[in-house]
Design goal:
about 120 residues; mainly alpha; about 45% helix
Amino acid sequence: MERRTHDDRIPAWAWVLLGWLGGRTIVAWLPDQEVLAAVRPPAGCTLEAEEPGPPGPTPRELRGVPDVGETRALALARAFWERGGVEFELTEIPGIGPVSSARIRAWLATRGAEPRE
């Protein structure tokens, strides 16, 4: 078996040149700024979020509620997100019973948001 010497390797300058040429090719394929400025969103389409942030408490905030660990906090945050706010039954979430639901409701009431009974 023949051993390769270090002379058989591609020199570093060739890799740099290859990267530069590849980058220039990709940049050449991108659309011009004038083309991008001419493109307008359809009527009635807004590009900005109407409500910044999640619609309810974050998992980190929910970890402060008594008897709410990481798993329940994530499940609660996901429920708030999927339902668009706090209009849902807390007992629908696995692992939350009437006692936990009452504690969470009390905590949410201090924040000014309370799910329906």
